[in-house]
Amino acid sequence: MYQVPIGVSARHIHLSEAHIAILFGSGYELTVLKELSQPGQFAATETVAVVGPKGRFDKVRILGPARGKTQLEVSQTDAFALGIAPPVRESGNIAGTPGIKVIGPAGEVDMPEGVIVAARHIHFHTSDAAKWGIADKQKLTVRVEGERALIFENVVARVSEQFALDMHIDTDEANAAGVKTGDTAVILK
Amino acid sequence: MYQVPIGVSARHIHLSEAHIAILFGSGYELTVLKELSQPGQFAATETVAVVGPKGRFDKVRILGPARGKTQLEVSQTDAFALGIAPPVRESGNIAGTPGIKVIGPAGEVDMPEGVIVAARHIHFHTSDAAKWGIADKQKLTVRVEGERALIFENVVARVSEQFALDMHIDTDEANAAGVKTGDTAVILK
Fold first, then answer.
1. What is the torsional sign of CA A113, A118, A119, A124?
2. What percentage of chain B carries pLDDT values higher than 70?
3. pLDDT computed for residue A189 by the predictor
4. Which terminus, N or C, of chain B has the lesser number of Cβ atoms within 10 Å?
5. Distance of CA B119 to the CA centre of its chain
6. Residue numbers of the domain that contains B147
7. Domain total for chain A?
8. A contact test, residue of B151, B168, B170 with most A CBs within 10 A
9. Cβ-nearest to A77 among B77, B154, B178
10. Is B76 on the interface with A (CB under 8 A)?
């Protein structure tokens, strides 16, 4: 039984240094609200607004630290509300994705691209992956128990020395399965 | 291969005759916007607002005809936005569920109970169920194909002479699976 803790990702944004400077002011540094499961990653105290053609979300959590490129991760439910059609993608793979307007206290950015629905995935530390015979990029099948029990196919394995064992699903997936952060999933194959 | 068409249920409300009279005026009759997959059921032209402790939805579609008891069906995503905690229930089983305020053009109703997250289910005409060896209330396991392929467990079979073959899932479930109305699911067992 390969058990994995579940982490549910609400909509959030990763910002580039350049966009932090525009949205919050030159030289601004994000402050840590809460450490996340992946080492070095944190939820920032700061939020931004994102504005699509059909709707907006006023308090979208920023996850730090700054990244090379700005990336907004939303659920499909969020995407319908915003009026945009982002693809399901792995984090970092944003070529050809839609953009959106981002508003901070010091300025606005029209992201030309970078909105995705994150592909469900499991972070494995290299040692976990070796022990369980799992390769980076492998597609896994993962079951969650309960009243809304279901089996997720196409769960991407992501293996790194920098990762801690955690399965990341979005709020649509968590709600469809009736699970929350801290619940447990089982890798079937 | 037991193939079933999928129907995605957005949030909607069924109203009692008494509540239609309060919300729209005495003697008011709902008008048909669109026939639904189940014989005699329709989406009404009319909508109502529903107001929870944390949020509201202004245009909630009414499904007709009138029922014995008013029932609001929302996704778990909707429930978080409204600030209420409805259970996953089969339609009609509303004892002990939360209520909500409903606002129409002619008046308001404080529903004492009746908000549910609908349990995923498949409507079978008696002849389909007989042919496939499926019993009313049976829990089925159902797979959907695609980029977000997944297998739903605990899908309730509902068998009646009044039903047409259709699998009903909510928007969280549809988004988690990457499917829309008109796509096809396969009953595995």
1. positive
2. 99
3. 85
4. N
5. 9
6. 120-187
7. 2
8. B151
9. B77
10. yes
Decide if A152 is inside a domain: yes
> For B53-58, what is the mean pLDDT?
97
Residues 6+ apart with CB under 8 A from A3: A184, A185, A186, A187
With CB atoms and an 8 Å threshold, state whether B150 touches A149. Answer: no
Q: What are phi and psi of B67, to 5 degrees?
A: -115, 170
The answer to whether position B111 is within a domain reads yes
% of chain A with per-residue pLDDT over 90:
98
Residue with tokens 């022990």: A131
Q: Which residue of B has its CA nearest to A119?
A: B148
The model's pTM is 0.95
Instruction: Assess B151–A contact: CB distance below 8 Å, yes or no.
Output: yes
Which residues, in sequence order, are CB contacts of B29 under 8 Å at separation 6+? none
Average of per-residue pLDDT across A30-43: 95
Q: Please tell me if residue A154 touches chain B, with a CB cutoff of 8 Å.
A: yes
Residue B99 scores a pLDDT above 90: yes
Query: Do residue B103 and residue B132 come from a single domain?
Result: no
Q: Is B161 on the interface with A (CB under 8 A)?
A: no
